[in-house]
Amino acid sequence: MKKSAIIALAVLFILSGCQFQNHVHNENGNNSKGANMQTEPGDPPYVTLHQQGVLKERGEALWQRMDSCDLCPRNCGARRLEGERGVCQANSTLEIASHGPHFGEEAELVGNNGSGTIFFTNCALLCVFCINADISQRGYGRVCSVHQLGEMMLALQRRGCSNINLVSPSHYAPHILLALDHAASKGLRLPVVYNTCGWEKADVLPYLDSVVDVYLTDFKYGCNAQAAKYSPGADDYVEVTRQAHLLMHEQVGTLRIDSATGLATRGLMIRHLVMPNDVTCTREIMQWIGNNLPKDTYINIMSQYTPMHRAKDFPEINRRITHHEYRQAVEAAEDAGLTNLHLQGPR
Questions:
Q1: Residue 139 belongs to a domain with what CATH number?
Q2: What is the DSSP string of 303-342?
Q3: What does pLDDT average to in each consecutive run of 10 residues of the chain (347 residues)?
Q4: pTM, rounded to two decimals
Q5: Range of the domain at 94
Q6: Which of 2, 53, 188, 242 is the most buried (most CB within 10 A)?
């Protein structure tokens, strides 16, 4: 994603008139009118969870896990409910960088009016090359309440966005579930896209079952040594991310497209960012996907790597990729028997 697009979204967010304030945990109680609304054919499964009270229960259960936080694989134990910030730099106060229609995502998510993207501040993976480091590691964003997050979702729906696209959501999973509960009570019916680095905990993903419609997930590394070097502390990236992808696929299956609109309605979409000198061990990733997920799993082989943030400190990744490097990544996917490849080519 281009940095200019993120800045534009941030400006849009500021102009949206959101009144930032501290989170009040009990402010998002169910709207009784919304709770009594009948589920219609085609409604996302989270609508039923809202009506059953399950969505709120799951959000509250995850909220308590911030008391000694174990929501991400770092298991840092930060007392987020007391204001302590974890390794991801988040406490229990919701912080958001921007929200608005985004037209730079995969075509299956964009449609005519854009993907309704919400960029959350902070991230647990801490990639040294992150193109969004101002947001993910330097804390760019503003305080916003759970209620306001739900209202953002509704505003994106009113603007005609194709979905609610949650970018770097893992450390705010409790807030997201509670906000969805509020928004569902007021008529939110858009599919939910969980736009994640892929490094997700196996015991958190069940809380997202029938909440997330589309998992849009990175598979960054195929070897732990490289993960630990370029995402410091993520030395279990491979095992954790493999298990997460199996669970995500179990929940949503392979990608399904609405034939009338061309939009994704449910399923798993995997991104892989090609980097210089094959530091991500691409062949290992593609072989694992080919051996453990359906051959027609959606794979976006991405070419837009740009050396940003601290990449200058690592000479082997301090440049763009070559045509040859990109072609090698494509060949690795083809050799693994993968058939649903979406290609870009170096820029």
A1: 3.20.20.70
A2: ------TTGGG-GGGSSPPPHHHHHHHHHHHHHTT---EE
A3: 47 40 37 51 93 98 98 97 96 96 96 96 95 90 97 98 97 98 98 97 98 98 97 97 98 97 97 97 98 98 95 97 97 98 78
A4: 0.89
A5: 3-24+33-343
A6: 188
